[in-house]
Amino acid sequence: MAPLYEGPLLLMGMKDVVEKAISDAEFEFANAKVRVQAECDFQALELPGLKIGPFTKGERYSLPLWVALEMARRGVVKLVEPAALSVDELIRVHSRETRLSRGLAADLPSDFYPRLRRLLAKLREEASRDPSRLRELDRVQHMARDIVNVRLKKVISLASSVARSPLTRKHLTPEEELLFDTIGDLADAWREEVVGNAGGHGPGSRSRAR
């Protein structure tokens, strides 16, 4: 009997969709405005389509994250709040998500995953220079996987429900919305087709090559 779908081809297509969704989320995060404080006086810098500054030492400004990080690297500004998630924040999210038996936590920030990726990247870099940081990296990676797996199961369960509440979207990150929509559409199509194809009859039935 022929397979119901071409698994590898389907997975390859989905991988592209997921990669684009993550890339889009990263783009949005990198271009989101963040608060910075000027570390020195700085004259305006004109770039094509972008003007940076002028800054007065001690004053606070809003900049796209990617600009803020470059200016911070040059010692011109410092970020008021770090771009990466802190370990303490991760611990709080981990505790809340793993204790909540049903439903999704309502207060997970929409930028949680980009900030989590930056925390992991920072710890990996530190561990590559200082092996004593490997234990901390391992602990954080385990917590990150726990959070991802817990939320993944809940999103799949909510998405595959016949009665999906539009309020669920309020508790999803952009990355999770893709999963919610994809699983929901797939579950709806599967329900319709599996009933329509019962006995080879119904509007959803179609012949299959063997």
| CATH C-level name of the largest domain | Mainly Alpha
Helix content: 40-55%
The CATH topology of the largest domain turns out to be Methane Monooxygenase Hydroxylase, Chain G, domain 1
Largest sheet: 3 strands, antiparallel
Secondary structure class reads: mainly alpha
Order of helices and strands: HEEEEHEHHHH
User: Radius of gyration in whole Å, from Cα?
Assistant: 23 Å
CATH architecture of the largest domain: Up-down Bundle
Report strand order across the widest sheet: 4-1-5
Return the average pLDDT rounded to an integer.
Answer: 86
The total count of strands amounts to 5
Number of domains: 2
Task: Estimate what percentage of residues fall within beta strands.
Answer: 5-15%
Rounded to the nearest angstrom, the distance between the terminal CA atoms is: 6 Å
User: What are the low-pLDDT stretches, counting only 5+ consecutive residues below 50?
Assistant: 202-210
Shape: globular
Number of helices: 6
What is the gist of this entry?
With 210 residues, the protein is mainly α. Helices cover 54% and strands 10% of the residues.
Topology:
Elements: H1 7-31, E1 33-38, E2 45-47, E3 50-52, E4 60-64, H2 65-73, E5 77-79, H3 87-99, H4 112-129, H5 134-159, H6 174-196
Antiparallel strand pairs: 1-4, 1-5, 2-3
Description:
The chain has 210 residues and is mainly alpha-helical. The chain has 2 domains: 52 residues, 3-Layer(aba) Sandwich (Ribosomal Protein L9, domain 1), CATH 3.40.5.50; 117 residues, Methane Monooxygenase Hydroxylase, Chain G, domain 1 (Up-down Bundle), CATH 1.20.58.1030. It has 6 helices and 5 strands, in the order αββββαβαααα. The strands form 2 sheets. A 3-stranded antiparallel beta sheet has the order 4-1-5, with helices on one face. Strands 2-3 form a two-stranded antiparallel ribbon. Helix 3 runs parallel beside helix 5. The longest helix is centred in the last third of the chain and has 26 residues. The chain is globular.
